[in-house]
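Lecture 7 notes: from sequence to structure.

We start with a single chain of 284 residues. Read the sequence below before looking at the structure.
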Amino acid sequence: MPGILFVVGTPIGNLGDLSRRARETLAQVSLVAAEDTRRSGRLLAGIDVRVPMLSFFEWNERHRVPQIVNRLLEGEDVALVTDGGMPGVSDPGFRLVRAAAAEGIEVRVVPGPSAVIAALVASGLPTDRFVFEGFLPKREAERMRRLEDLAEEPRTIVCFEAPGRVQILLRDLLTAMGERQVAVARELTKLHEEVLRGRASEVLSRLTGVDLKGEVAVVIGGAPAAPTDDVTVFIPEAEQLVESGMRKRDAAHEVAERYGVSANALYRALLDVQSPPEGELPNY
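Now the structure, written as tokens:
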């Protein structure tokens, strides 16, 4: 019988985020395919697990895939891990999963931490619909073309960036998209975790002269809807801000500014749908 390919999510910083199931899986497999055997070796040593390891990274992925598939077909269970987070998400992995599935090998996912989801949730931007862009192109012309393509994207956008290039990204973003609400999240789950939120120009100003360190995720607000006289379509977004603790007037002003509609009209509409229960003072 073929073995099982386990796709195991590992901590993106805080080792306390390694799940019990992930620990048990890593302890019982015959082989761990790791993006960086030194880094994953320290993780395994920290949980007192000793399992043979095989390097599996971007530049050797193509020739490693048949080797690992053969071992799976011979009955060995294999765990796939990356330096942190879920394998296959802006990291090596999807080719191995695809090849294993094509051979009829069972693939099981052991969910774990994700920098994409952590940054999205921490951003304070809409989370109901989003897109993930991984790392944007390093070359300026290619990066600008990609940002211009995304300028009309209405969903929240999440991407990764090297710490030394975050200010460049924000400047290019302002050129390609104009002012947007953004969040720059760095060192998520680690000791020096930080999330900077605000308009792109404001965050860029706060980062001027700052030498960012660590892994960074940038979350970008989606393209604003076309201006409309019907402000009621923006009430759900304003209500979301009110539920997070913002005053109604401030929430109406922030959403109205984001979409270019009347703040007073949106505030009145918000009051109409959020009349407080009898005897309760309104949250003005």
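The first helix runs from residue 20 to 28. Keep this in mind for problem set 3.
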